[in-house]
Amino acid sequence: YAILSHRWGAEVNYEEMIGLMKMEEEEREEVEKRHGYQKIIKSCEQAMKDGYEWLWVDTCCIDKRSSAELSEAINSMYRWYQNAQVCYAYLNDVGESTFPTKKDDNKFAESNGWPEWFVRGWTLQELIAPKEVKFFNKDWVHIGNKRQLEPMLEKATGIPREVLRNGLAGKRLSVAKIMSWAAERKTTRVEDRAYSLMGLFGVYMPMLYGEGKMAFQRLQLEIIRRSSDQSIFAW
Fold first, then answer.
1. Fewer CB within 10 Å, N or C, the chain?
2. Are residues 103 and 74 in the same domain?
3. How many whole angstroms separate alpha carbon 125 and alpha carbon 129?
4. Considering 145, 170, 195, which residue would you say is the last residue of a domain?
């Protein structure tokens, strides 16, 4: 299967997706006009073109009405990206047909000079976990893959090329080093700052939306339980 990584916007959720055919025409048209729906369609077209039977998209493949399903999905997310044959990274704020080669504070003023995809919390694991990542601009033009773009990706994220190329397996990286890659990243929900890092540290914990910053303390405790790396205290 292929899997999508993207910056969230006006999305289509699971409930809307499965109810699409039962909707009144006017309601269905409203959903189909959303940018998030077009993302799903374009991703499906790309997956078909690449010869895949299945595509997984976080916005419409998780029934978030079920807390058990949401918790399982978040705890499994890193593995799902890791097991995908290819990950499509959709950069909705890149109009050119080439990947940005250097920081541009005018064009990407609100995201440290790089496309917004690079400052989101969840996209960190979505860059590291898959074997292959293909990047697309806002018009779904392919602008390079993870291997071709290693120098720029290292510059934009601080992640060493060896990790970009081969993932975290077998690497003896300190907790503080991995944490540093996430330092400038943002999430909409406070708790997601912690939840989006679980896969990178190989830890699992229940989701408790509403706990706020306590989520990060729980993440640190889980890391300490699994590791004797004292660099976590430096963080």
1. N
2. yes
3. 6
4. 170
In this structure, the answer to whether residues 65 and 82 fall within a common structural domain is yes
Query: Residue length, the chain?
Result: 235
The total of structural domains in the chain comes to 2
Tell me, yes or no, whether 165 and 178 share the same domain. no
Tell me the whole-structure pTM to 2 decimals. Answer: 0.94
Query: Of the candidates 137, 153, 170, which is a domain's last residue?
Result: 170
Q: Is the separation of the CB atoms in 78 and 200 below 8 Å?
A: yes
Find, among 92, 63, 58, the residue nearest to 78 by Cα: 58
Instruction: Compute the distance between CA of residue 54 and CA of residue 87 in angstroms, rounded to an integer.
Output: 12
Q: Hey, what amino acid is at 72?
A: E
Distances 10 to 36, 40, 154, 217 between C-alpha atoms, Å: 5, 12, 30, 31
Asked if residue 220 and residue 180 are part of one domain, the reply reads yes
> Residue 219 sits in which domain range?
172-234
3-state secondary structure 192-232: HHHHCCHHHHCCCCCCCCCCCCHHHHHHHHHHHHHCCCCHH
